[in-house]
Every structure is written in C-alpha cells, then in structure tokens.
Amino acid sequence: MTGGILTLNAGSSSLKFALFAAGEDRPMATGLADRIGPEGALKIKDGTGAPLPRSEGSLASHGAALHCVLDSLRAAFPGQEISAVGHRVVHGGIVHDKPVRLDAAVMAELERLAPFAPLHQPHNLAGIRAAVEAFPQAPQIACFDTAFHRSHPWVNDTFGLPRAYYDRGVRRYGFHGLSYDYIAGEIARTAPTLADGKVVVAHLGNGASLCGIRQGRSIASTMGFSALDGLPMGTRCGQLDPGVMLYLMDQEGMTPAQITDLLYTQSGLLGLSGISNDMRTLEMSEAPEAAEAIAYFTYRIQREIGAMAAAMGGIDAIVFTGGIGENSRLVRERVCATLGWMGVELEPGRNAAHARVISSDVARTTVMVIPTNEELVILRATRALLQGNERTAA
Ligand code: AMP
Predict the structure, then answer these.
(1) DSSP assignment, residue 72?
(2) In 10 A of CB 78, how many CB atoms?
(3) 316 part of the active site
(4) E strands within 159-197?
(5) What is the architecture of the domain spanning 192-374?
(6) Which of 224, 231, 241, 367 is the most exposed place for a label (fewest CB within 10 A)?
(7) What's the pTM?
(8) In the CATH hierarchy, which fold is given to the domain comprising 3-144?
(9) What residues form DSSP beta bridges with 52?
(10) 104 CB-side CA count, 13 A
C-alpha cells in the first residue's frame, strides 16, 4: 500500500477529516467542513497547523463537501494517492466490538441501526456513501464509538426494563469509544503500572462522558442508550428522570420532535446558563447563571467519578481529556476539590501548566491530562485491517 489514508468524521452538518501519508502517524492535513448547506465553511490546515487554501466548490451536501475537500487536498498535495478511507461511525450495535471493512451487507446492517442513533448514524452513513462514490476501489473501514464498551458486564449493559427490550437492543451502549480507546493505549504506553489498574477517563468536550477502564477494558460508561445520558454537556441534558419526559408529553403537550430538540440542543450548559454552551465563554462570564451551570457540570462529574470508582472496586487514576478536560484548569480544579476522600490531590502549579500529571507526588490517586486523538485510532484501525487483509491474501 503506497497511498495515504483519509479519515472522515461526518456529523449532522459537518465533515471532519485528516489525511495521513503512508506509514505516518502525523497528518499531512486536517480540516473541517462546517455548517454543510448553503452557508457552509471549509477550513484546512497542513501538518504544522498553517492554513491551506480551499478550492471553490459547493458545500451543499456531504458529497459536495467531500468533493471540495478532495479538490483542495489534490491542489495542496499533487500526486498524493488515497488507498483507504477510515470512518467514525457512532453505532455498531451489539455485534461490532471492533472496526470492520465496509461492504453492502455491513452497510445494510448499519442502516438498520439508524433508529438507535437518528441524529448521528444517517450522517455517518452519508459520509461513507460520499467516500465510496469518490473512491469506489478503496477499502472503507468503519470504526465505532460503541465498540470499546462492548466489554461491559451485563449489569452495566442493561436497563431495569422487561428483558424483551434488552433483546430488542435497548441497552446501555456507551459512546466516545474511539477517544477512550486512544487514552487506554496511551496509558499502556506511558504509564504501564496504571494499565493494569482502575482508571476513570473523563472525556469533557461539547459532548461529555466518563468511562471506567479496568485492566484496559471499559467496564462502565455514563452514556447509555443514547449520547444524552450521564453528564450534562454543551447543549445536552445528561441524566434525566424519565418521569420528566412523561410530564412534558402528557402535561405540556410536547411532541417527540420538540422533546428531542429540548434535550439535545437547548439543555446542558447552554440551557442552565442561558448564555452559551461554550465553557470558555462561561468561565469569562460574571453572570451567576454561568457560575451555576459550571457548578452543576462539575458536581455531576464528581458524583459520577464516585460511582465509577464503586463500579470498579477502587480507583488508581483519573484522566482528563476533550476540549474542556485538556484546557480548563478551573473545571479540573473544581472536580478534584471534593475527591480528597479517594486519594485525589492536585498540584496547582501542574494543573495551571496543563502538565501530563497534575496530581501531587504524594497523592494516592494519579490525575493526568492526556489530549485525545480519535483520528489516530481510526488511522491505526484502518491500517491494521488493511495489513490483515493483505496477509490473508498473500
Ligand atoms: P470539544 O468538543 O472536545 O472540541 O470541546 C469543546 C469545549 O472545550 C468547549 O466548551 C470549549 O469552550 C472548551 N474549551 C476549549 N478550550 C478551552 C479553554 N482554554 N478553557 C476552557 N474551556 C475550553
């Protein structure tokens, strides 16, 4: 295989991509087509972070956006071939516990899973179709956000509903799996003594969840059937008594579409603050509502870290990642402030410097900051599957 690998992460109105040359782990280019539609915008950077020019062209659909991305990449890197495309796919159902090469049968199966993730899966599949059209000969590999969590014990996989619902797929799938996979690998690589231990990873970005990782395997996630459960997020509510939804339907006459909009796009930090879903904006605001939104966010993280420690039978480390986890010293400080009982003690200078280890030398529980890299997980999985296939063919 001599060509490069393209990784794609197609969201509802966005297409995130990275291009890697053969054998390289650092991207030649990364970028984001945003607000896909009549007002789309496309930003591309080279491997050093310097902006690259974008080609003229429509960003009206995922297919059009991919064409525009590819035209821009061809102009910037003439002669660079693409041998395979790796895709982030939100839902792999109960079957997929690892990446898979896409063919018609797998695509049909992933289509059947769309009702489980109606806001994400159809867009992921649109990205795949666009890539198949652009590279009909290239292998296309799907990497699932749910796959890392398929190791959950039954008690963390089920709800307290009649069994028939579990059998029909109403389960706690968990998401952000590519991020957790990367962090688990980084722990094994850089802190081998922790690799056998009990680690809570806090992926805190616009979406947010915790994962309890014991001996490198996920045993619990705060996210469940959908990416709504668990922690409050930028615009998503997090854990909610299902009785609230019954009330909204029965008493306030809200439709499923209105409730979907409320829970996914109007809640969380945005809904609580009434100001913004963006943590930077809230940290800078002097409004009491902004402070309360941050307080609710950090309080729920503290509670859930306690729950994760109980689920794992102890805790050796906490890892912060994601846009907020990697960059907000305030959120890390607030979260850790009440966790002294579980051996957490931050070293303020290290926290302020966003050091890799931010706990004090005497703390019983190590606290780390590890920037996540979901693209690298997709790249490596794509490479591994291609090499596996090549070996099989040889
Ligand atoms: P992500 O979804 O992982 O890209 O994370 C986005 C979130 O990270 C937003 O809420 C940002 O406000 C937050 N974020 C990024 N940089 C910082 C920073 N320096 N301080 C606080 N929050 C940040």
Answers:
(1) H
(2) 7
(3) no
(4) none
(5) 2-Layer Sandwich (3.30)
(6) 241
(7) 0.94
(8) Nucleotidyltransferase; domain 5 (3.30.420)
(9) 44
(10) 0
Q: Which runs of E-coded beta strand occur in 145-207?
A: 198-204
Contact of 6 with 139, CB cutoff 8 Å? no
Q: Where are the domains of the chain?
A: 3-144, 192-374
CA 47 to ligand 1 center in whole angstroms: 21
Task: List Cβ neighbours of 36 (8 Å cut-off, separation of 6 or more).
Answer: 13, 14, 15, 59, 60, 61, 62, 65
Rounded-to-integer distance, Cα 241 and Cα 236, Å: 14
Q: Which of 180, 124, 169 is CA-nearest to residue 147?
A: 180
User: For residue 209, what are the β-bridge partners?
Assistant: 203
209 Cα to the center of ligand 1, angstroms: 14
Q: Is the CB of 327 under 6 A from ligand 1?
A: yes
Residues whose CB is less than 8 angstroms from the CB of residue 189 and which lie 6 or more positions away in sequence, other chains included: none
Burial degree of 209 (CB within 10 A; 0-12, 13-18, 19+)? buried
pLDDT digits (tens, 9 = 90+) for 7-56: 999 988 889 999 999 999 999 999 999 999 888 999 999 999 999 999 88
Question: 234: CA distance to ligand 1 center in Å?
Answer: 10
Give Cα 43 to chain centroid, integer Å: 21
Pocket test for ligand 1, best of 280, 321, 329 (most atoms within 8 A of CB): 280
Among 264, 263, 296, which residue's Cα sits nearest to residue 279?
Answer: 296
What is the dihedral sign for C-alpha 92, 174, 334, 273?
Answer: positive
Q: Tens digit of pLDDT for each residue in 288-326?
A: 999 999 999 999 999 999 999 999 999 999 999 999 999
Instruction: Read off the pLDDT of residues 210-252 as tens digits, 9 standing for 90 and up.
Output: 999 999 999 999 999 999 999 999 999 999 999 999 999 999 9
CA distance 229 to 245: 13
* Tokens of residue 359, six digits: 């706990």
Catalytic residue among 25, 71, 97, 145: 145
Q: What is the DSSP letter of 54?
A: P
Q: Which amino acid is at 311?
A: A
